[in-house]
Write a structure and sequence with these properties.
This protein is about 45% helix and about 15% strand. By secondary structure, it is an alpha/beta fold. The chain folds into 2 domains: about 1-245, Aldolase class I (TIM Barrel, Alpha-Beta Barrel); about 250-330, Non-ribosomal Peptide Synthetase Peptidyl Carrier Protein, Chain A. α1 (about 25-30) packs antiparallel against α10 (about 250-270), α3 packs parallel to α5 (about 120-130) and α10 (about 250-270) packs antiparallel against α13 (about 305-330). The longest helix is centred in the last third of the chain and has 23 residues, at about 305-330. It is globular. Belongs to the dus family. Belongs to the Dus family. DusB subfamily.
């Protein structure tokens, strides 16, 4: 699949998620087989551009190309300026956010709230595409309200504006993340326009990935929440799409190694104070469903240093490995995430 002149290694893409898809997470997902990743959304408000949080989000040092920076806002000129800024900062693709359903974003008439004003949507698309010499992509939803889905008009207008690819979440803003993603309109969008269409929403298994690709005819799929604490989902899906076979679930030793490596990257990226606190949600995702994990997490949340946090994580997984050794004595060949619950 191509986005502009950039050829992706495959059609598996990491969704932009605020507070999640930082550089360490994007790098890890690419290591496990994602062909592309989009950054967390960054505000077009230049007064906030130099905030500590914004600088972290705009850090692309050493990241595998192509680098995609997502911008969010409601003023066409501000968004154009933000696009130019991110390109100067190293972005090779600029992504416009018209899909975020969060109240704090929609209350500023940004994100999915933009879908209420198609004229403004058109002005934003035209202005941002004209502002930069790199591909511009769009991430959006089916519409703002159920029963008022306008994605067919928005998608056609996006193609006319020169948008290089369209990522479409199969829900309206009203849906938030409730109900099931609807793929019928994604299928209709793919039939309507000629630019690449990326399907997003509720893709959480190899079988679901194949179903969505087959049903919608989409060029690629975008995975968000299902990759939280499970970055190897891209490896699993990639293998299944190529062979029709399932890879073995990662065993506890591999999960331990991946998590500790992820923590190390987070600590280096954010530093002592923020690194420890940002890591907590990732640790919770990795350990969800494991034996005695709730008790472990409650204790882990109390740890205040990165060194101690890494130690308690390592100790917890060592306990699981010890359990696995005892289980092997009763002819259980492998302890994996599905068996330790």
């Amino acid at each position: 699949m191509y986005i502009g002149s950039y050829r992706l290694s495959n059609n598996l893409i990491v969704a932009p998620m605020a507070g999640v898809t930082d550089r360490p997470f994007r790098t890890l997902c690419k290591y496990f087989g994602a062909g592309h990743a989009v950054s967390e959304m960054m505000t077009a408000d230049k007064t906030l551009r130099m905030s500590k949080k914004s600088l972290y989000r705009a850090n692309f040092d050493g990241e595998l190309a192509p680098i995609s920076a997502q911008i969010a806002g409601s003023d066409p000129e501000q968004l154009a300026e933000a696009a130019r800024y991110q390109v100067a900062n190293g972005a090779q693709i600029v992504d416009i956010n018209m899909g975020c359903p969060a109240k704090k974003v929609c209350n500023k008439l940004a994100g999915s709230a933009l879908l209420q004003d198609e004229d403004l949507v058109a002005r934003i698309l035209d202005t941002v595409v004209a502002a930069v010499d790199v591909p511009v992509t769009l991430k959006t939803r089916l519409g703002f309200l159920n029963g008022q889905e306008n994605i067919l008009r928005v998608a056609k207008r996006a193609e006319e504006a020169g948008i290089a690819a369209l990522a479409l979440h199969g829900r309206t803003r009203e849906d938030m993340y409730l109900n099931h993603a609807r793929y019928e309109l994604i299928k209709q969008v793919k039939q309507l326009i000629g630019i690449p269409v990326i399907a997003n929403g509720d893709i959480d298994s190899p079988e679901k990935a194949k179903y969505v690709l087959d049903y919608t005819g989409a060029d690629a799929i975008m995975i968000g929440r299902a990759a939280q604490g499970r970055p190897w989902i891209f490896r699993e899906i990639g293998h299944y799409l190529k062979t029709g076979e399932h890879l073995a679930t990662p065993d506890i030793a591999e999960v331990k190694a991946v998590l500790l490596g992820h923590l190390s990257e987070l600590y280096q990226f954010y530093g002592e104070y923020s690194g420890c606190r940002i890591a907590r949600k990732h640790i919770a995702w990795y350990t969800k469903g494991l034996r005695s994990s709730n008790e472990f997490r409650q204790n882990m949340y109390k740890v205040e240093s990165t060194a101690d946090q890494a130690k308690v994580v390592e100790a917890y997984f060592d306990q699981l490995l010890d359990l696995g050794q005892r289980m092997s004595d009763v002819q259980v060949e492998q302890v994996n995430l599905l068996e330790i619950k």
